[in-house]
Batch of 2 targets.
Target 1
Amino acid sequence: MIKGIKHIIFDLGGVLINLDYQLTEKAFAALGLKDFNAIYTQLKQDTLFDDWETGRIDRGQFLSAMKASVGLVLTDEQITAAWNAMLLDFPLRRLQILQQLRLHYDLILLSNTNEIHEDAFNDILYKAHGIPNIGVFFDKVYLSHRVGMRKPDAEIFQRILDDLGLKPEQTLFIDDTPQHIAGAKALGIQTIYLEKDMTIEEHIFKPIDRN
């Protein structure tokens, strides 16, 4: 048990599911797009990805915008596969940790994500572990594209506190992005920053050595 904590909010990417952003870059390069990072940066400035992650545009609009930007003749399926290439696996130990923690804490999932990735990570979970969706491990799930808000904005953290009647000092948030941690801290939420090369199974919820 974690002293004083009753509720734990988990990030998804990089905390529960392993990610490799370079695989998406390489996948687009294999399709003929050699400057994906430059296009990605420009599209971020044009708010495409913010709109995508907060549900202001749908799958079709996102794919159309991507096709218009890359300057190549690509199918929806090719873009979707390249976009999903960054999503790797859910280590079994992490899922077991969630099951164990849920016996003692309220568990909440908070992820900046999108419609295409939601389909993909649930498919990964099902194929590897026979589990239909990540929501089965949590009391409540907040996906940015569904709720219209995203980290690190204070409003998404306040929404969770208000919806569930949580006290920030009794709530722990675990994330691998510094600005997201800062957003939660600003509301008095307890935080753990999962730094590069850290994992929840090796550095936070380690088995107790009873020897």
Note: Residues 115-129 form the longest helix (15 residues).
Target 2
Amino acid sequence: MMLRYVAGYSSIACVTLVLAAISLVAGNYAAESYLRANPRILMTHQDRVNENTRAVRESMIPPDKVSEWYAFDSPNELKPMWEEFYNAGAEFESYTHFRARPLIGKYYGTTEAGYRMTRDPGPWPPDEHNFNVFFFGGSTSFGVGPYWATVASYLQDAMNKNETFDRRVYVYNFGRSGYVSSQEQILFHRLISASHVPDMVVFLDGLNDFCWTDGNPSSWQSLQRYFNQTNDDYRRRAAGYGVVTRWDHARKFIETLPLLRLINAWVARAGEEEIPQYKGPDKAVEETPADEATLRDVIDRYVNNIRQVEAVSMNFGITPVFVWQPIPTYKYDGNYHLFYPDRLGCHINSKFGYPLMAKMVAQESPTKNFIWAADIQEELKEPLYIDAFHYTAPMSKRIAEFILNSEIK
């Protein structure tokens, strides 16, 4: 009787396991078929934000403004320019974590040396017979239009028309998307260490430092995970004399099963924030900024960074210039901003941090060559931004001319 019961139980267990295996295979087959037909469901929230931003840049700009705002000869250049941009991407770089991948093309113009070209690019390494300027900043310095329509390129144009400079001026645009002032300072030191010593350095900052309030590069968590995982694997191999079961391979297999990926995508989509819409300041969603102590820490870190740059510059005979940039959420009539987002995300911090910075600068400038450019748009009643935060070509030119016309000592 007992043997008959055990045999029956075993048969049921076997049938159950077979049915479970068949269900798992069938479920994953169905999930894979669904994902192949609907691949967009696997897009992360950031992927969807990036796609939305691209759609804004390509479709929301008035057709009669495309050539002016991007400094194109023809509005038909917009789509091929963005194809270049989205095919470029980023790559790892020691110390600074990342940089734009080199790609010359027709519009992108980013070199192996790590800088973006200007309208009339100078030689690399820089020729000491020229007046060489290194320009640093985030994506607003890198620019989202063609390389000849950036603040750095317009600054070079303006400086070469100015009789103050008795040598040919070349500006090297080391602006990089996502950079904060700490990364820019490190990049500056690395260039100096490689004996690339300019006559002048210009730093355009303000927006990104308030976004990444801890002062770390935006990619630090990814690199931390990779570094820690690599070292954990090494320690396990060392402890087991090379005999280590790689359970992580099994985990990766399970994580990549179509059914699990589909479920994770549904869960993630259900819990994520909505994609920003561009409805004007009156439709903005109420967001909470970092506390005032954190915002003041950001300002203190920025001031400490520029003082270090200034000290190094003095030793190498470099003229340092620090520009606090204009942003759409400070002293600008948002009703003229065609792409004012209803959600600012981490950039909500700059909306509250800029008044704190303005108050500090009004009491005492952080350094002698500090240029307050944050309110140059205060009286302007026109569109100045090509998307949520980046400048049109005319605005980039306006900033460049403001920098040149400011008193630099």
Note: The chain has 14 helices and seven strands.
